[in-house]
Amino acid sequence: MSTGSRMTSQILNTRNVRSQQTRNAILLAATNCFEDNGLLKTTMDDIAAQAEIGRATLYRHFSNKEELLAEVVAHNLSSLQAQLKTVLKNCQQPEEFFVETVVFIIIESQKSQLTTLLLGDENNLTLINQLTLNNANMIAIGDDLINPFYKRAKAKGLLRDWVNKTLLQEWTSRIILSFLSNPSPKLKTKSQLRRFFYDAIIPSILIEAN
């Protein structure tokens, strides 16, 4: 590689690092603003001020508040994914992967202030559906979450006829949203949730489960 090419590569790498740093600062600022001011009252100007950047810089990264909120939620879910890998290490049967994944997401999401903000106001329901069912990043994360279960169940021929990956992902997302938006007083603990999913949900997905 010539000296000129190396310099160009270094400049591009530096710009990429700075761009990612700015993006991370925006996500942190947006999270803080959403938690302090609420979703509806937070403006792009608030987020730019919190991140200590100009409006033009903010809009170069995110075209609107909804896109930014989707990225914040996706970022939080990505963090949960890393933790979930540890939870799933001891799973063996397909149904274990499904139940442990869904229970983990429900329990951990209930601890998040962002979840409370999203689900605590009926005015956010349309936005929630857009985030969970129509956003490309969220769909990709949902795909990753159900994949350990789906590929094992499919390989063993255990999936019921109605189950395909796209429908299962949407169905699972709706179940999780239901538990988060309307928590059951009888299904609060991990053991209670596990029992419910093994008894009520797994038989509707799998032909047989151990």
Characterise the protein shown here.
The structure is a single chain. By secondary structure, the chain is mostly helical. The protein folds into two domains: 1-63, Orthogonal Bundle (Arc Repressor Mutant, subunit A); 64-210, Tetracycline Repressor, domain 2 (Orthogonal Bundle). The chain has helices at residues 3-37, 44-51, 55-61, 65-87, 94-110, 113-119, 125-134, 136-155, 165-181, 190-205. The longest helix has 35 residues, at 3-37. The radius of gyration is 20 Å and the shape is elongated. The model has no long low-confidence stretch (mean pLDDT 84).
Q: How many domains make up the 3D coordinates?
A: 2
Q: Kindly report the average pLDDT value.
A: 84
Report the principal-axis shape.
elongated
Total helices: the number is 10
Low-confidence stretches: none
**Radius of gyration of CA atoms, rounded to a whole number:** 20 Å
CATH topology annotation of the largest domain: Tetracycline Repressor, domain 2
Strand content: under 5%
- CATH A-level architecture of the largest domain: Orthogonal Bundle
SSE run: HHHHHHHHHH
- What is the helix fraction of residues, given as a range? over 70%
Q: Report the top-level CATH class of the largest domain.
A: Mainly Alpha
Q: By helix and strand content, what is the structural category?
A: mainly alpha
Q: Count the E strands.
A: 0
Largest sheet: none
Alpha carbon gap, first and last residue: 58 Å
Indicate the topology.
Blueprint: H1 3-37, H2 44-51, H3 55-61, H4 65-87, H5 94-110, H6 113-119, H7 125-134, H8 136-155, H9 165-181, H10 190-205
Helix pairs in contact: 1-2, 1-4, 4-8, 5-8, 5-9, 5-10, 8-9
